[in-house]
Amino acid sequence: SEIIREAVSGFVHKKKYPTNVIVSHLSRGTRDKYKSVSAYFSQADWNLLEEISKNTGECKTELIRQAVDEYLGKRV
């Protein structure tokens, strides 16, 4: 879950997405190659993720998967 937290934090702070700029919880979920995990985010990162989701029309789960994929791609 630390990788997810770091990935999302880096992802939501990129200037690529339009945004106007306590702990939030992402419930467990699986799909394809993804393991089931629980991750906790800062409220600020979660709010930015929600804003990006609203502005792009993509669900938060898909944005998180994209963030993790990008993060892992940079580490390989």
The number of domains is: 1
Number of strands: 2
The end-to-end distance, rounded to whole angstroms, is: 18 Å
Please bin the fraction of helical residues. Answer: 40-55%
Can you write the helix and strand succession as a string?
Answer: HEEHH
Q: Helix/strand-derived class? A: mainly alpha
β content, as a range? 5-15%
Computed over alpha carbons, the radius of gyration is 12 Å
Which residues form runs of ≥5 with pLDDT under 50? 18-30
Bulk shape: globular
Mean pLDDT: 72
Written account of the structure:
This protein has one domain (2-75). The chain is 54% helix and 11% strand. It is built from 3 helices and 2 strands; from the N terminus they run αββαα. The chain has a two-stranded antiparallel sheet. The radius of gyration is 12 Å and the shape is globular. It comes from marine sediment metagenome. This is Ribbon-helix-helix protein CopG domain-containing protein.
